[in-house]
Structure formats: C-alpha cells, structure tokens
C-alpha cells in the first residue's frame, strides 16, 4: 500500500568534499522487506554529519547525509504485517537503525547492532547490502543512516516510532538523534538515580536534551558547562541549576565549590573533543561515572590520569545512541507529555536549499541548541 510518490525527488548530495552539499534531483527510493518510505517533514543538522562532510570520517561518495528525521509514512515494504505501522502515520526516525536479527539485537542491544556499523556506517548501505538511493542513471548513492536530507527516505521499520498529532512535525525531527542519544546516555549509560548530581559538558542539541532528561529522572543538581553565554542562558531555561563558562572559569574549582568539595556523581560529555573530555573528568567525584557521548572527528584521543581513575574508582562509560526499539517510543512519550521541551531546543530552521549555510554555522559553533531543515520552506 502506498500514496502517490513522484519518480524524482530533491536531495542534498555530497559528491566531493571540496564542493560540499549540492541540492539535486535523484530517483525517489522505495522500501524493501521490513522497511518504510517516509515523506520527510524535517531533518536535523548534527555534528556527526559534519565529520562526513569535512572528510574527517571516511564514507563512500556520492552520499546523502542527515540522520534525524520526522515525516509521514507513504509506502510500506513487504514484511510489515506485524510492525503496527501504516501508510499515513506520522513518525520519528532514529539514526541508529537496528537490523533486529544480529546477536546484539537479539539481546536488546540495538546500540551495538553489527550490520548497522558494518554496512551502514562503513558502506552507506542497508541490510541486504545495497543502498536505496540512486542517481538519474541508476548509479548508487550511499546513505548515512537513512539519508534524511531529502524529500523522501527509506528507514527500517525497527527504527521508526509513531508520533501523536501534538508532536510538532518539524521540531519533532530531533527526537530520533539528539533526544534519543541523550535518553540513552542518562538511562542506559549513567543509569542515573534520583537525587544524584550531574554536569553536562557542551550544551548543544544533545546536551540540552540531557539537561531535561536528567531533571525528569530526578537529578538534584544539574551543572551546565559551555564556552558560550547564550548557550548557558538557554541551559538555565531548560533546567540547569548552575552554569560554568569553561572559557573563563576553572571547571574543577567551580563544580567542586558548588557540590561541597565533592564533585558530581555523573559527568556527561557531549561534543567529542579532548578538552571537553578533560572538563568532564575534572568535574567528577570519587566513585563517579563519566559518560562520553560526542563523536570525535576521525581518530582522536583524550588523556586519562591512570592513577586517579584507579585510586578514585572512577568509571568511563561510552554511550552511543540508545536502544532504539525500546527507547525511541519512550522519548516520544516524554516529549508528548511535556517532560522534554524539544521545541525550545530547535532555534533555527533552514530550507533544503539553505542546508550548506546551516552546516557552516554549525561548524563555527553559531547554532544554539539544534537547527533543522524544514522541507516546507
């Protein structure tokens, strides 16, 4: 079953690192077994895309990036009889697309899905070993996740969740990456307990979501750390109890002063840079947990003081995304119930033709919260 679908669609295609994204017409994709096609209403702009666009992370070209989307299902592939999905449903799509069949998925560890990393993240393909995207002449175009910077995209049914009408169809795009990644870090990585104290280092789209989810989980103190005063002001509006400008203040001194000389129970790092790793570790108490979430550009390393980590029983717990099938529906529920003020995180909207401008602003740290491409503009 499907709705009217055009033969061609517009997409932001990366063919050459030096030339950047170009909006072009390519073939409209169609879903295969266990997949759906959605008409995209919006796609978020994420730092992970920047690593591909700048060549810091090797990825096949040509490619379409964009991995946090919202839209409407317009076609169901075969094998969806038990999925509960239907044409006409509004959905959020998760960047982490579990195959549902590998050993990790069988254990419920969608975040460790082997085919997702081996096929999609390395080769730009879905789980039959082919991409759904193609040029006018039929030559393949790689997909970064679902390749969401396009008018239509194919997503495995395991990676979509229906959303109620009260979810904004544009701002709701960030639920499948920024918000779900934050939920995974708080719920799965940190296993945050009521009354614990946290620091959130880097308060962009993911960090802003961590602040809200930590508050919903009952954190007693939430300290936001960033280098931009406008981002720190926004963090306070979203629930941070305290802020630290790490460009002007010593993170360790301020955090320990705020916590009675103890440090925080959990420090989240949401940017993937050595300096933000250090800030998170400097905020941590004895026996505390540091949860890094941000991806570095290419192969980066951060120093960890061995003796301090051992003697003070500190833990470093990496967190990549979340357990999509379990966690995305919960993220949607929290957003629909007002526990996550996702609309306030989206501060800029660009048309598809303006996508290169949006990424350029993101690259230079000039986006507060999250920017999205609004397909209606």
From TrEMBL:
Q: Which cofactor does it need?
A: Zn(2+)
Record keywords, A-Z = Metal-binding, Oxidoreductase, Zinc
- The superkingdom of the source organism is Bacteria
Q: Which residues form the Enoyl reductase (ER) domain?
A: 12-373
Which Pfam families does this entry report, sorted A to Z? ADH_N, ADH_zinc_N
What does the similarity note say? Belongs to the zinc-containing alcohol dehydrogenase family.
Read off the PANTHER family from this record: GROES-LIKE ZINC-BINDING ALCOHOL DEHYDROGENASE FAMILY PROTEIN (PTHR43350:SF2), NAD-DEPENDENT ALCOHOL DEHYDROGENASE (PTHR43350)
Q: What is this protein called?
A: Zinc-binding dehydrogenase
Q: Which organism is it from?
A: Schaalia naturae
């Amino acid at each position: 079953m499907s709705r009217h679908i055009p033969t061609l669609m517009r997409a932001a295609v990366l063919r050459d690192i030096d030339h950047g994204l170009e909006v072009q017409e390519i073939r409209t994709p169609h879903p295969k077994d266990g997949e759906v096609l959605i008409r995209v209403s919006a796609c978020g702009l994420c730092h992970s895309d920047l690593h591909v666009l700048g060549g810091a992370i090797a990825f096949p070209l040509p490619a379409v990036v964009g991995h946090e989307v919202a839209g409407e299902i317009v076609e169901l592939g075969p094998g969806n009889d038990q999925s509960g999905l239907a044409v006409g449903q509004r959905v959020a799509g998760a960047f982490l697309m579990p195959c549902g069949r590998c050993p990790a998925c069988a254990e419920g560890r969608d975040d460790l899905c082997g085919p997702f990393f081996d096929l999609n993240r390395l080769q730009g393909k879905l789980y039959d070993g082919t991409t759904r995207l193609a040029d006018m002449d039929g030559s393949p175009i790689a997909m970064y996740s679902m390749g969401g910077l396009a008018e239509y995209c194919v997503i495995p049914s395991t990676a979509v969740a229906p959303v109620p009408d009260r979810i904004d169809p544009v701002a709701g795009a960030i639920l499948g990456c920024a918000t779900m990644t934050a939920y995974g870090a708080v719920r799965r990585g940190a296993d945050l307990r009521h009354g614990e104290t946290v620091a959130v280092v880097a308060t962009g789209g993911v960090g802003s979501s961590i602040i809200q989810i930590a508050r919903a989980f009952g954190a007693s103190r939430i300290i936001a750390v960033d280098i931009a005063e406008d981002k720190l002001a926004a963090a306070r509006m979203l629930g941070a109890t305290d802020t630290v400008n790490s460009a002007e203040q010593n993170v360790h001194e301020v955090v320990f002063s705020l916590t009675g000389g103890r440090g925080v129970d959990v420090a989240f790092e949401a940017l993937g840079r050595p300096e933000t790793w250090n800030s998170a570790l400097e905020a941590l108490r004895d026996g505390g947990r540091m949860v890094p979430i941000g991806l570095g550009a290419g192969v980066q390393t951060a120093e960890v003081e061995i003796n301090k980590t051992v003697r003070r029983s500190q833990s470093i717990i990496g967190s990549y995304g979340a357990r999509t099938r379990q966690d995305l529906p919960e993220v949607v529920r929290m957003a629909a119930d007002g526990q996550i003020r996702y609309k306030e995180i989206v501060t800029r909207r660009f048309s598809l033709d303006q996508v290169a401008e949006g990424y350029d602003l993101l690259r230079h740290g000039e986006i507060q919260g999250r920017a999205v491409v609004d397909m209606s503009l």
